[in-house]
Amino acid sequence: MITGTHKTRALIVMTTLSLCFTALGGRLVQLHVLRHEELSGQAAANRGLVIKRQGRRGEVRDCNGNLLANSQSVRIVCADPSITAAHAGATAAKLSPLLNMDAAALQTRLNGPGKYVRLKQKVDEETAQQIRALKLKGVFFEDQYLRTYPQGSLASHVVGFVDADHKGVQGIEAAMEQYLAGVAGYEVIERDRKGREIRALRAEGIEPRDGYHVVLTMDQVIQHIAETELEKAMGEFRPRAGLIIVSRPKTGEILAMSNRPTFDPNNAGRATADARRNRCISDVAEPGSTFKIVNIAGALNDSTIRLSDVFHCENGAFLYGGRILHDAHPYGPLTVEQILFKSSNIGAAKIALKMGTPRLYEYIRRFGFGRKTGIGLPGEVSGIVHAPNHWTKLSITRIPMGHEIAVTPIQMLMAMNAIANGGKLMKPLIIKRVVDADGRAVVEPPPQQVGQPISPAATALMTTALRRVPMPDGTAPKAAVDGFDAAGKTGTAQKIENGQYVRKYYSSFVGYLPSPDPEISILVSLDDPSGGTYYGGSVAGPVFRRVAEKIVEYLGISPQQPLTHSRQVASAR
Predict the structure, then answer these.
(1) How far apart are the C-alpha atoms of 221 and 556, rounded to whole Å?
(2) How far apart are CA 191 and CA 198, in angstroms?
(3) What pTM does this model have?
(4) Which domains are delineated in the chain?
(5) Quick one: the chain helix, strand, coil %, rounded to 5?
(6) In whole angstroms, what is the distance from residue 56 CA to residue 15 CA?
(7) More confident residue, 207 or 534
(8) How many angstroms separate the CA atoms of 293 and 21, rounded?
């Protein structure tokens, strides 16, 4: 017999069940109808993963195809914490010895928020295969490339380096970033509940495009010659810093650009900013007597003077504007030719006085001083050239000897190249071509003439005088190259510190050979050499000779019988 109590209990149970089923039904309606799109999206997101695919960064090579910068394939080990959190401790314990990372730190990252975390970058393929063999849930890989520089510090200031994100920071790496970097791609994959890829459901993505390759005008062998001889000079003369640039005068192609101190781009972060600086384009200083080529070439071009014209050099002390200008040696009357190859400050000043301030300033600008050369490397500066309205009454006598003006080494070399190649001011060329994976040229910049400061006739007269500089009666007999007519100019510039000249010097030599038809030009500069001598002819001259001797042998430039002085003077006139 069913009592009222049993009926009441049954009613309560049925009501409770009805309410539960009603709630469940409502929940199902909410999930499958009202929130269908939202939850479907979340489910797809849980199953799907976008994997980034990085394009391989382009190579940097020298003009002969020698590799200077390359990218090696490595892996980034990643994880999905929404999957790894459930077994973070066990996963961390297995990964720790392979990744050489602290297990506790790994566990923290595996147990973190979100669906994506990078555990370690630059993991080699062998280690990646060992991790794959563990079949760890929620652990996967992304492609990455490791930038390497197989030649170490060779040409490091030109090649440059990349940062942690594989972006160019300095040198060609930065200047040619748009070509070297390539284009990234991606891939969408489907995963099961354990985080493993379902290959049958792999979706199509966008394939990455590898970067283009950059071929330089530089020659690795010539660069090695410059580096070796500069290193010897650093040991012999113990300067604070030094540099050598080698170029082709006719085209402006840079064959070598060496700096000391230097650095290894494979470990750029360990080098100081001073060691990473490309002094060839970023350092400015008073050039000293190498700058005499500017006003003397200009005066010859204007026919204001002739090589045979004589100027009295006041026996080494010239009073002008209330100040005495000195020569290194007490000269009396000198011809223009002698003024140049003996490097008389007084003679150069008197030539400038004869040509006048407006013409001197015009030739300074014509030769490219006071503006960037446009070499295309980051960090280049313009130098300092004051307009005539800012000159003092002494400037007309001081600027010709390379005072009151600041230039970069690359500007000075390009100016000398204009004298070597018939008066054409060339833009320095460091990029030979940019090519795709099949070797087809994408960019191929031609040699570019940017000015004609003087005529071919004036350059012939200048060469007549400049080839006397490495002779016994010139300022740089130690720069003479056996079997070749070399032409050049010495420079010994006193340094300025805290606005005052101090007894420290920039010693330099810039020249070209063979002088009748130049194939190469070389600039050598040493900052504050020690050891008893600091004159450019004694310090930089021998370095020029050693570099030139090795380069002409490497390039197969045949020795010539040097022209006699009297024959060349006659032909130049």
Answers:
(1) 13
(2) 5
(3) 0.83
(4) 49-82+118-216 (3.90.1310.10), 220-572 (3.40.710.10)
(5) 40, 25, 35
(6) 68
(7) 534
(8) 101
